Amino acid sequence: MLSGFAKLDGSNAPLFGLDTGFRAQKITVSPALLLGLSHRAYLSELRDTQFVFELAGWLGQTVSHTPCYDSYDDAYYFGNLSAWSDYSYNAQPTETYVKLWFEYAF
Fold it and tell me: Rounded to two decimals, what is the model's pTM?
């Protein structure tokens, strides 16, 4: 995974990232792209007090699972050994986050 930001000015920066995905025998996660924005608001002219607000989300990721089979040829989910017919998952998860923090330098 790679992430970063590009400073536009003293207060704003777009956020970006790339997750290259993951592949194992029973699960595959496709690559995803992170897009977002960060805004900094200084509360004094000395710039010793500030609020920072971030909003970002991952786009384009898909997840697929493959069942395991026992010696009776019954399918089950490898994560918790539940019956495959009882297991359900979101194949296109969306992850977004909002971050707000306060900083004071003394």
Answer: 0.72
Residue ranges of E strands in 1-106: 2-5, 12-19, 22-23, 27-29, 32-42, 49-59, 63-65, 68-69, 75-76, 96-104
Six token digits for residue 76: 């089950």
Contact 99, 53 (CB under 8 A): yes
22-66 pLDDT tens trace: 999 999 999 999 999 999 999 988 889 999 999 999 999 999 999
27-65: burial string, b at 16+ Cβ within 10 Å, e else:
eebeebebebebebeeeeeeeeebeeebebebeebeeee
Which helix (H) or strand (E) is 83 found in, with range?
Answer: none
Q: What are phi and psi of 85, to 5 degrees?
A: -65, -25
Inter-residue contact 35 to 57 (CB < 8 Å): yes
Amino acid symbol at 13: A
